[in-house]
């Protein structure tokens, strides 16, 4: 009897958690899969605005495409730290504040996946708990969502759009 196959998102999520436990943080990182190769691309800079973030993802995609032999993009994974606010569905608890400024925010590690060929998304979320000194003391969760109606990554969609754009001269 063979072992059940572990979804790649869970393997990458566990590796991200291991890195987080060892170092206390995780730099933003993309894993790009094509038919012929897989590459990892660190995200050195991510601006604050959504539009600017999407533009950065498009630029990263165009640069990654130049490095790949295959133009057939199959999957993209993104690992990033973020702030999250737990609210009831439909509740607007932010008002005029940003999530990063809200007193009830939680720090999370998010692993997002987009299967490009099937246009399906998945996500794993881990809450990071720190002590008064800011040291990571616990990682909680592994919240799982594979429902494409609940999971949508505009950044990964921007990456695909950038990948599919005509290369800049």
Write the layout of secondary structure elements.
Elements (H helix, E strand, L loop, with lengths): L7 H16 L5 E6 L3 E5 L7 H18 L5 E12 L21 E10 L4 E11 L5 E10 L8 H11 L5
Antiparallel strand pairs: 1-2, 1-3, 3-4, 4-5, 5-6
Helix pairs in contact: 2-3
Can you tell me about this structure?
It contains three helices and six strands, in the order H-E-E-H-E-E-E-E-H. It has 169 residues and is α+β, with helices and mostly antiparallel strands. The protein has one domain (28-164). Strands 2-1-3-4-5-6 form a six-stranded antiparallel sheet, with helices on both faces. Strand 1 (29-34) and strand 2 form a beta hairpin. Helix 2 packs across helix 3 (154-164). The chain is globular and about 50 Å long. The mean pLDDT is 86.
Rounded Rg? 17 Å
Low-confidence stretches: none
Percent range for helical residues? 25-40%
Q: Structural class, judged by helices and strands? A: alpha+beta
Number of domains: 1
Average pLDDT score: 86
What proportion of the residues form beta strands (DSSP E)? 25-35%
Shape: globular
Q: Give a count of the beta strands, DSSP E runs of length 2 or more.
A: 6
- Major sheet: order of its strands? 2-1-3-4-5-6
The biggest beta sheet reads:
6 strands, antiparallel
Secondary-structure element order, as H and E? HEEHEEEEH
Beginning-to-end CA distance, first to last residue:
54 Å
Task: List the quaternary state of the chains.
Answer: single chain
Total helices: the number is 3
């Amino acid at each position: 009897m063979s072992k059940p196959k572990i979804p790649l998102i869970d393997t990458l999520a566990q590796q991200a958690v291991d890195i987080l436990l060892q170092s206390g943080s995780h730099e933003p990182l993309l894993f790009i899969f094509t038919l012929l190769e897989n590459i990892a691309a660190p995200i050195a800079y991510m601006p604050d605005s959504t539009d600017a973030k999407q533009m950065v993802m498009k630029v990263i995609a165009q640069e990654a495409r130049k490095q790949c032999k295959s133009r057939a993009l199959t999957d993209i994974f993104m690992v990033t730290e973020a702030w999250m606010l737990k609210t009831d569905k439909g509740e607007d608890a932010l008002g005029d504040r940003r999530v990063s400024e809200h007193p009830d925010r939680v720090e999370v590690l998010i692993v997002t996946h987009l299967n490009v060929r099937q246009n399906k998304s998945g996500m794993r979320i881990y809450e990071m708990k720190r002590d008064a000194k800011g040291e990571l003391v616990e990682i909680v969760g592994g919240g799982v969502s594979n429902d494409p109606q609940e999971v949508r990554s505009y950044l990964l969609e921007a990456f695909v759009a950038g990948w599919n754009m005509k290369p800049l001269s």
